[in-house]
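Let us practice reading a record.
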Amino acid sequence: MNIRFIKPAVCAAVALGIAVSALAHGAAETVTPNFQHAIPNVAGKSLTAVVVDYAPGAASLAHRHAGSAFIYAYVVSGDIESQVDDGPKRVYHAGESFFEKPGSVHRISRNASETQPAKLLAVFVADSDDKTLTTPLK
């Protein structure tokens, strides 16, 4: 399989798009692009990975992701409370993961600790032409 590294200009464009999403989420989290590439054997789909760093007690606003996006979330460190759609609220610990189906509403995404930071890796599989991956709910 031939995987090419992202060129600096593409990284800058992705970073700008993710930074706008970070502003939509809230000031107490940092969203950093990690990887973005078209999936060569699935026409029209791309894989995008971002790292979400939560300060102690920080939370994202309730949000929806692109309608085509399937999201796999892995807790890298700390403890993250999450609620997707009307499912149960749950705290995920480092090493645990969850997913969001396309069209889901992420009602709660927050650091469960008031004293320790938390980090989440979010991996999106979405239509390549979906440029806005995260939209806050009104």
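A brief commentary: Helices lie at 8-25.
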